[in-house]
Amino acid sequence: MGTQKPRILPWLMSQLDLGHLEGVAWLDASRTRFRIPWKHGLRQDAQLEDFGIFQAWAEASGAYIPGKDKPDLPTWKRNFRSALNRKEGVRLAEDRSKDPHDPHKIYEFVNPGAGDFAQLDTSPETNGAGSTPDTPEDLLDLLGDMALAPLPVEGPSGLAVAPEHYSQLLLSPDSDNSLPHPNLAPPDNPLRLLLEPEEQWEFEVTAFYRGRQVFQQTVFCPGGLRLVGPEAGDQTLPGQPITLPDPGMSLTDKGVKGYVRHVLNGLKGGGLALWRAGQCLWTRRLGHSHAYWAVGEELLPDSGHGHDGEVPKDKDGSVFNLGPFVADLISFMEGSGRSPRYTLWFCVGEAWPRDQPWVKRLVMVKVVPTCLKALLDMARSGGASSLENTVDLHISNSQPLSLTSDQYKAYLQDLVEDMEF
């Protein structure tokens, strides 16, 4: 049986009243706003004292036993943040964690009569050794840091692939699904279910020949995908082959059809590979046709600014980083940035159409990671900078989850901090 641990809001109020922890203090006489030190663990001036509130909660909740367990600063911080995110009566008011001199966050209680914490915080909590996940998806949440952080590793073919043991934990029906560490409480961030496991990312692939849409398919791609021509390529390579259609099915101009076929024939040898490893999307050219890429708008590749890079031949090239996307999404919700881009465009067999109509290019391919589109759609449905609206989160086969925009932004900030670690 798990021993009951204290509820975080009454416990936090007692720590604020005592004033024994460095930097943890009330900010107003009504005891509704308070500050928490929030120094990044990688800063050169970071000291153990900067994590005092996180360690104190880890000890109080039974997740850390001094002298028995190894100190785990990132986990302490993440569990404290997750515990606060679960409570509807408290919200993040200001994020000053980037302040070079005094990094901290300001929280506030938002419910009337918030001082009555016995009424406000009623959810039972148990320690990590005997806890039961709140939802069936919590077990996936536990793998959050592992799925967001690892660097690519070389597979037999030279392509970067996700470490196998991550997928085994998720996909093997015979695997032991117990928690990997008895004192590690599962994070409670539902957004992770959109972003992991990386083997189950879904992509919408659309192909254009001379500006005419000739193909569209939405696929789950274990190991990534490969754009290939109509002739079967090497089936032993990792990644799901996405066969671009013969131009004879859609084009009438004989000359154009011939040029398009020539480009598609250049994909022999493995095609154009795209896959996710860690928090990045990677690409590699395995065939003869050169390819250029850019991150553009969903409806057009924004050809005026030129390409972002050329797909490298027989080596890995990063084309997208999830960390900056989530950070830009937070700025967008706060009204201080433009809508972040997530659509990858590839120009195959020709130079990028800089300052020219992209519809004149022979083969253009658009790839949309559907989970990133869902994240942006949720931000827009919540009114971007408006924190009063509610967004509905739909994840695979799970039940819909309604979040306030403020909660949604807090979960996004949670992802950013974990990726920084």
From TrEMBL:
GO terms for biological process: cell surface receptor signaling pathway; cellular response to virus; defense response to virus; innate immune response; positive regulation of DNA-templated transcription; positive regulation of innate immune response; positive regulation of type I interferon production; programmed cell death. GO terms for molecular function: DNA-binding transcription factor activity, RNA polymerase II-specific; identical protein binding; RNA polymerase II cis-regulatory region sequence-specific DNA binding. Keywords: Acetylation, Activator, Antiviral defense, Cytoplasm, DNA-binding, Immunity, Innate immunity, Isopeptide bond, Mitochondrion, Nucleus, Phosphoprotein, Transcription, Transcription regulation, Ubl conjugation. GO terms for cellular component: cytosol; mitochondrion; nucleus. The keyword 4Fe-4S does not apply. It comes from the Eukaryota. Pfam families: IRF (PF00605), IRF-3 (PF10401). Signal peptide: none annotated. It is found in: Cytoplasm; Mitochondrion; Nucleus. PROSITE patterns: IRF_1, IRF_2. Residues 120-134 have a biased composition (Polar residues). InterPro entries: Interferon_reg_fac_CS, Interferon_reg_fact_DNA-bd_dom, Interferon_reg_factor-3, SMAD-like_dom_sf, SMAD_FHA_dom_sf, WH-like_DNA-bd_sf, WH_DNA-bd_sf. Residues 5-111 form the IRF tryptophan pentad repeat domain. CDD domains: IRF. Residues 117-138 are annotated as: Disordered. SUPFAM superfamilies: SMAD/FHA domain, Winged helix' DNA-binding domain. Transmembrane segments: none annotated. This is Interferon regulatory factor 3. It comes from Castor canadensis (American beaver). The gene is IRF3.
